[in-house]
Design brief:
This protein is an alpha/beta fold and 477 residues long. It contains 16 helices and 14 strands. The termini are far apart.
Length: 477
Amino acid sequence: MSFTSDISIVTQALNQFYSDTLAKAKPVLNQQELDHIVADLKLEHYAQNGGLANRDLKQFLDKYLSYVTRLHHANNLGHQCAPPHYSSALGSLVTGFANTVSSIYEMGPASVSLEYFVINWMLEKVGWEKVRIRGNSRHAMSTSGGGVLVNGGSIANLTALTIARSKVVPEVWKTGSPSNLALLLPAESHYALTKAAGIMGIGAQSIYYIDGDETGAIRPDSIPGTFKKVMDDGKIPIALAANACSTSVGIYDPLDEIGDFCRENKLWFHVDGAHGASALLSDKHMGLLKGVQKADSLVWDAHKLLQTPSLCAALLVRNMEHLDQGFQIHQNASYLFHEKHQPGFDSIHRTIETTKSGLGEKFFFVLAGLGEKGLARYIDNQYQLAQEAYTYIREHPNFECPISPQSNILCFRIKGDNALQLHIRNHLTKEGTFYLTTVAFKEKRYLRLVFMSENTTLETVKELVSEIMELSKGIRD
C-alpha cells in the first residue's frame, strides 16, 4: 500500500463526486435498503481479508460515494449540516493522519495553539475579553473570557449547564445534585437541552417553559411569571437558556431583555447559538444577537454556518473562572496530573471529553482560506436567499408561511392538512429529487427549508414549488 497513490485515488473520487454534485448529474439523496448497501460495499469481505487499496479502493469509493447525501447539491435543503469548504477537508486530513490530541498540550502543541486562537477569535466577536495567560503558570486570568472546542452542540450545551450547576451548587461534585434543581427554557428549545437536563438528573417536571410570541421567540414579559413559579415551587433554577436561533423556524430570542432579567436576578444566562451565532460575522445581521455579551455562556457551532465539517462546536464563557471550576471532581490520573514542564496549557479538566481530537484545524483552515469577509458573505447570501424565497412563496396563492425568516431557515406549507405535507416530503426524499425536512409549529406541520448550499438559488425554490404543485395534484386527484 502507498499513502501517496491511495490519497490520489481518494482526491480523484472526491473531485468527481463534487463535480457530479454541482452538475446535478446525481440525485441529492440516494436512500437504499441498509442491507443492500452493506452487501454492495462488500463490507464483510474487506473486514475478513483487508486489501482496501489501489483498484479496490477506487471501486469501493465509487460505490460508497453514490450513497452519500450530497450536501453541496443545489437541491439540498434538509438539515443544518454544512456543505464544507474544501479547505476544511485539508484540516481534517492533517489532524486525522497526525492524530493530534488537543486536550493535553504535550500531545498536540500545534493543535492546542490553533484551538486557543479560534476561541479568542470567537470571544472577540461576541464582545468578551480574550483569554489571557498569567505568567509562567499558564493559567487563564479569572477576569478573561474563555472556551473550549468540543464534538458537537449537544456536548457543548451539556457542558454549559454543568458549569451553571456548579456555580449554583458549588459542592455538587462532592454531595451530588439536590433534588430541587430546575431549568428555564424557551418553548422552542432544542431537544439537546432537555436531554442535558435529564442526564444531569433534572426531570421533565423541573423544566419550566417560557411563553413565546407568534414567532416562537421568548416574550420578555412572560419571564418574571415563569421565574416566580419556579421559586414558588421551591426549586433552585440553575440557568435560563435562550435561542439564537431556534432550530425549528430560525427565530432569535430577544437576548438583550433576557440578559437584563438574568443579571437582576443573578440567574445564569445561557445562549444556544449553535446555528445562529455565526451572524456575529455579518454587519447586516449581527443585530439579531444584540445583548449576547450579557450571557454567561454561549454555544457556537462551526459545523453549521461556518462551512466546517462535523463536528466542531465551541462553548464560550464570559468568565474563564467558571469554566475552570465547572468540573471539580477529583481526577485520579497520575500519568496526566503532576508537576511538569508546561509551555502551554491543558484543557482536559474543562470538558466532558478526555481524549479530544484536534478540532481547531477543521475550522481554522476554512477561516484562513476564506477570511472573515468570505465567511460573512456566505452568511449574508444564505440569509438573503431565505428572504427572497419567503417573498416568492408567500405570494403564491397555494402556499402559506407562518413567519418571516430571520435566518436561513424557512417554513412553508401547501394548503392542505398535515398528512399532505408529510406525503410530499416522503415522496421527494424517496425519489431523491429534493431533500427537505418538516417541522411542527403552532400545531401545524410545515415543510422546512434550510439554505446551506451555496449552489442553491431562487430558481431552485421555484423548481421545488412546481414539483410540489404537481405532486399535490396527483394526491388530490
